[in-house]
Amino acid sequence: MPERAEGGQPDHADSQVREIVSAITAVADARLTEIAGAIVTRLVGEIEYFATDQPILDQLNAGAADNFAITMAILRHDIEIEAVGPSAPATELARLLAQRDIPITALEHAYRLYQDSVVRWCLQELALRSESATVTAGAALEITTLVSAHVNLIAQQLLSTYEFERDAWRLRRSASRSARINDLLANRHVEVEPTERILGYHLGQYHLGIVMWTDRAQSPEVGLAHLESAATALACQLGTSAPPLFEARDEHMARAWVPLGDADTVDSERLSAVKRRWDSPVIVAIGQPREGVEGFVRTHTEADLARVVVQASESPGPGIVCASDLGAVMLMCNDLSATRAWVTDILGPLGIDDSAAAQLRATLREFLRTGGSYAAAADALHMHKNSVAYRLKKIEDQLGRSVRDHRLNLEIALELAFWLGSAVLTQD
């Protein structure tokens, strides 16, 4: 309220300020629809998120005139600022922005633009009505102070509404998405189109299932941040144009599906390059490209089996492991004690967990992987062909038989030893 001069009467300049502010608000009331429309046009023109979203436009149009009328009432001192809460359209706008994951900065920007638009219009009207510098300054100060206080109060309340709705919406959406994913993985009947809308993901394409996790010694916030960014980075590095479907399982583990569209394979050279360059703290297990709803399930199952292999191993492994690299190893991790006994039976002395046996296992594994070629194995191991022959003679002496006997069992046992390490080897 204006200060009073000596004798208890309002100062003449203050009285003129009140008269001019009242006159400005009277003009505003008469031109309410026009001014509110101009404010909405400015908001839509300067905030990209608003331009193409009809429900947002509806709330802007519904609330603009009411908001402006309330601001004018505050300038007339018809109501106290603290007695005014956000209008229903303003509250609904904040909720819509949160549900669409539109950044909170868009809401803040909208109210700064509203404040600037109101003050600018009032000052333009003020310039037409006052020739006194003292009165003009006083009216400008009162307008900017009251409008700023009103907008700040409403904006703070709506930012709280936004944050509450964002958290609640994410929980509801996450629960709904998780329920649909679990239905798919459990082979329950689902309606494809509604499920796709909920997931935001197309099921009628090729999928690459991935399971990823971080060290549980990390803080939950770090773990979750790494997981989602790792899924996005992996999809990008594999050359996919659409984002992956991501679902956190807990604070340190997540599953995701990379959309491959019509591609039934992943570029092997690109994947190899990604594996070599992977420096994220996230460990990733990858299934094979599979198609459709059944493929959505199968590629995830393969990725999860690859995860079991990696986690069963007690030695640190590569950052990215592909199910296609593991073969039958994935099927033999449910009972490690039985697997360890079988590896010991097949490898005998080669199944001891020491460096000498590891060197012989590596030579035999490469020899069998290269089709039993001394020359190819030597190239792969970067050693002379005679050295390979010497080691193979030593291996056969320890096994008591030719390495070509029971070759399939040897290959599987060597793969188990390679991937699982000390988890299936005999301690010396």
From TrEMBL:
Q: Using the record's annotation, list all stretches that form the RsbT co-antagonist protein RsbRD N-terminal domain.
A: 34-177
Q: Which residues form the CdaR GGDEF-like domain?
A: 196-306
Of which family is this protein a member?
Belongs to the CdaR family.
This protein's species is: Rhodococcus pseudokoreensis
PANTHER family registered for this protein in UniProt: CARBOHYDRATE DIACID REGULATOR (PTHR33744), DNA-BINDING TRANSCRIPTIONAL ACTIVATOR ADER (PTHR33744:SF1)
Transmembrane regions listed in the UniProt entry: none
According to the entry, every stretch annotated as the PucR C-terminal helix-turn-helix domain falls at: 360-415
One Pfam family name is: GGDEF_2
| Protein name, UniProt field | Helix-turn-helix domain-containing protein
